[in-house]
Amino acid sequence: MTKKVALITGVTGQDGAYLAELLLSKGYIVHGIKRRASLFNTDRIDHLYQDPHVDNKNFILHYGDLTDSTNLIRIIQQVQPDEIYNLAAMSHVAVSFETPEYTANADGIGTLRILEAIRILGLEKKTRFYQASTSELYGLVQEVPQKETTPFYPRSPYAVAKLYGYWITVNYREAYGIYACNGVLFNHESPLRGETFVTRKITRALARIKLGLQDSLYLGNLDALRDWGHAKDYVEMQWLMLQQDHPEDFVIATGVQYSVRDFVNAAAKELDIAITWKGEGVEEKGYDANGKAIVQVDPRYFRPTEVETLLGDPTKAKQKLGWTPKTTFQELVSEMVREDLKSAQRDELVKKHGFAAYDYNE
Ligand code: NDP
Ligand code: GDR
């Protein structure tokens, strides 16, 4: 039997790494697009690396960028993929306010470039397409919980760019009969999560505070509410969406909501440390626990327009795809804390033996 061929954009990111692993375990030949960087940027997928000099490789990397049409057309022509997973994006909501034009180019027009490549190469009937859409589309929420039919109200340049990506995917499905789907995924985290997203920032800082490598953690809006799942569970859905008889869009979420403050408390509990809350009126709310870890509100992390609350309704995915999330909030926090404690222990060892440790207080 010939092996299925998949192409993943954003293969070096959190989801890209989990998805590549999943597809390889299912017997796929997996191609990934990585960006050229001045330092190695393949940490998350190094365990999957295969020597380019040996035959019959099933994991192959290509240099590329979502802002370069010629590059995308060439790679897709060469690879002739059965499935494309478009995970690449400038994915940080706060940073999108600093780089709005680039974000629109990569996250919005980048999606169009891939769909056009499929069309230009005459692959409409062969290649299935997954678009990494987001709960950020709901922004200023119009309905609770949010489901596939809830109206969108994006609140950042990132979300507006992703809105274009969402609709161009729907349009190419309807106009050209491409099997194209949007996964509207709510926040999903893991030990592989980027260090500047709030969950990883918290687990990493508290683990270091536990070991005396730093004193404080600076955060923005502690009251923001999110529906947090595990990335490993969510990439399974990305694959399932491309295995159906007809292409459809799906909301993927846990249906349970916690605040940023809840996340801090859950991580502190795992590490058995108490928190002292400071700044922006938090003391007045009676949160000062005189603890070891100082969590301080820093307005620099507030966004010009915030998404205060997100809560997903994954009923359609449960019914049509038979999917339920496997990891609970507590299990997720526990795994992230455990992994960050291991790396803090490595830094502690280095420090004890006379080398300067990095200051990760960002
Ligand atoms: P990451 O930020 O971890 O990964 C993003 C990936 O995109 C990285 O491989 C990055 O490369 C790559 N990338 C960025 N810009 C470009 C570009 N111009 N050309 C090519 N590649 C590029 O994101 P996640 O893995 O968390 O998310 C995957 C996708 O899902 C993203 O599109 C994100 O917006 C979306 N999403 C994520 C959710 C989440 O909670 N994680 C929820 C909903 C949607 P490099 O490593 O070089 O930076
Ligand atoms: P989000 O994730 O914006 O939901 O986007 P992030 O973890 O950045 O923020 C979640 C909430 O926490 C608040 N917050 C902070 N956020 C960061 N990054 N740093 C802080 O110090 C901080 N303090 C409080 C934020 O204001 C926000 O309310 C993620 C990304 O993965 C997107 O790509 C994806 O589309 C959505 O999830 C679903």
UniProtKB/TrEMBL annotation:
Gene3D superfamilies: NAD(P)-binding Rossmann-like Domain, UDP-galactose 4-epimerase, domain 1. Its cofactor is NADP(+). InterPro entries: GDP_Man_deHydtase, NAD(P)-bd_dom, NAD(P)-bd_dom_sf. Pfam families: GDP_Man_Dehyd. Residues 7-336 form the NAD(P)-binding domain. Keywords: Lyase, NADP. Its EC number is 4.2.1.47. It catalyses: GDP-alpha-D-mannose = GDP-4-dehydro-alpha-D-rhamnose + H2O. One of its GO terms (molecular function) is GDP-mannose 4,6-dehydratase activity. Belongs to the NAD(P)-dependent epimerase/dehydratase family. GDP-mannose 4,6-dehydratase subfamily. Catalyzes the conversion of GDP-D-mannose to GDP-4-dehydro-6-deoxy-D-mannose. This is GDP-mannose 4,6-dehydratase. It comes from Methylobacillus methanolivorans.
